[in-house]
Design brief:
mainly beta; about 5% helix; about 475 residues; elongated
């Protein structure tokens, strides 16, 4: 049985007023020196800056325990603060933003570790973290002493994150880069930017998590150049998760689920900016392989997005059993593009081998179709859509059938990149080879005069049981 280390025995107060940073790190160091152990936070509020995990240490938050991110110093050197951002390889390029390129400047960080865990029914509250690289009127994330992530892991093996709740987590609730054998289960995340970001990771399972992230993505797979080399995100399974983008931050954790949109007018005024979805991309230099997304619920957020625009290959993706409730924009968005944010000479990758089946989507505020969009000379390949049932707002006029959306090959990928008035009611497909559609049904709340399908440069298509 692992030895248990109580931070109070190392000087922690747990009163929410005194800084417990040094005591918490002493407890972690003691557990590591013992060959491994559990640092157990009992009920109380532990105010802290950066906690440095070590191999074979399990951080456990009991019910009633709150790990609270302290405020950074108002000026550099004016007082204790978060660990300095490391001089990372990624800092020498501009292929991804500052938040993706550093890990030490976090509430909890782990670099090059093995056999670590963060578990328990307690709460991690990132109140003192900033939630962007730079925000007008706020401290910049790159300023000394400032933290911008709740949990950041780099090059770690055999990691478990389970059971905890994470509130207001800064730029990322969980950022894992170059990690392997990662199990994330039963997290409740209620945050002001990204929920879980998996970057250049392998052998990952994310299960039974609930994530509310109105201002950014809930679960996002990336393959940036943060390791200083091309590396894919591969062998990832996401199952049984619920993601949302329209609850007031904190109301998922407390159970009230209070909507950000109040009243019909505001609902229609805010159909575009709520995020909260599951996405592959945008950063995609290394590509994605063998990704499985199963039995997940999207609630009042954007739909599923599969994107490769920076040269990496996106292949062997299987999606099944999605329920999209009050989804905004396109329910499914697949994009092969040529933004090419990567090393010199990078060329468009391949997007192929995608199967999406058993999807139910309700779109009360949107009439956008499913979008499959490659670029000239680079087609999306071998896509199967089966058992897709869409309920759209409808109401589009017949004149939209003549719209020719821009190619926008180098643009940031987003369903609105082609405009919100697309020429198809159910499926927009351009630059695709090998498309199979079976049992695709569209219902419209209002009559929609656009054709069910709009297709250009689509080769080897097979369609059956498609209608409205």
């Amino acid at each position: 049985m692992s030895e248990v280390f109580d931070p109070r025995a190392f000087g922690a107060r747990g009163d929410g007023a005194a800084l417990d940073t040094q005591a918490l790190n002493r407890a972690v160091a003691a557990a590591a020196s013992a060959g491994g152990g559990v640092v157990r936070l009992g009920p109380g509020t532990y105010l802290s800056h950066s906690i440095r995990l070590q191999s074979r240490v399990r951080l456990y938050l009991e019910k009633g325990a709150v790990l609270l991110a302290a405020d950074p110093p108002a000026e550099p050197g004016a007082g204790p603060g978060y660990d300095l951002p490391e001089a990372s390889i990624a800092a020498t390029n501009s292929y991804q933003d500052f938040g993706h390129s550093h890990w030490r400047n976090s509430l909890i960080s782990g670099i090059g570790l093995e056999d670590i865990a963060i578990e328990g029914p307690g709460l991690i509250w990132g109140r003192g973290l900033v939630n962007g690289d730079y925000e007008p009127g706020h401290l910049p994330a790159m300023q000394a002493g400032v933290g911008n992530k709740a949990i950041a892991l780099y090059d770690c093996r055999r990691v478990t994150l389970a059971g905890v709740s994470i509130l207001e987590a800064g730029h990322f609730a969980v950022l894992a880069t170059g990690c392997r054998d990662l199990a994330i289960a039963r997290l409740t995340i209620d945050t002001n930017r990204d929920g879980i970001n998996l970057d250049c990771c392998r052998d990952v399972e994310v299960s039974d998590c609930r994530i509310n992230s109105p201002n950014d993505d809930a679960i996002c797979l990336k393959s940036t150049f943060a390791l200083g080399r091309l590396a894919a995100t591969e062998d990832v399974r996401i199952t049984g998760c619920t993601v949302s983008g329209s609850y007031q931050i904190g109301s998922l954790i407390n159970g009230s689920r209070t909507l950000l949109d109040r009243g019909r007018r505001e609902v229609f005024a805010n159909v575009t900016h709520r995020t909260g979805r599951i996405k592959l991309g945008t950063e995609s230099t290394g590509g994605f392989r063998r990704i499985r997304i199963e039995n997940c619920i999207f609630q009042r957020c954007r739909g599923l997005a599969l994107e490769t625009v920076d040269g990496g290959d996106l292949e062997d993706v299987r999606v099944a059993g999605l329920m999209l409730r009050q989804v905004r924009h396109a329910p499914i968005f697949i994009r092969l593009g040529a933004r090419l944010s990567g090393p010199e000479g990078v060329t468009p990758g391949r997007c192929r081998g995608i199967t999406i089946r058993d999807v139910r989507a309700d779109q009360p505020w949107s009439a956008m179709p499913v979008i499959l969009a490659g670029i000239a000379g680079h087609r999306i390949e071998d896509v199967t859509l089966a058992d897709i049932h869409l309920r759209s707002r409808g109401g589009a006029p017949a004149r939209l059938a003549a719209v020719l959306p821009p190619e926008a090959a180098a643009d940031y990928p987003d369903p609105e990149m082609f405009g919100v008035d697309l020429p198809a009611a159910g499926l927009f497909a351009r630059h695709v080879r090998g498309l199979t559609v079976r049992r695709f049904r569209l219902e419209c709340a209002r009559p929609d005069a656009r054709p069910l399908v709009w297709a250009r440069d689509v080769r080897q298509a097979s369609v059956s049981a498609m209608g409205r």
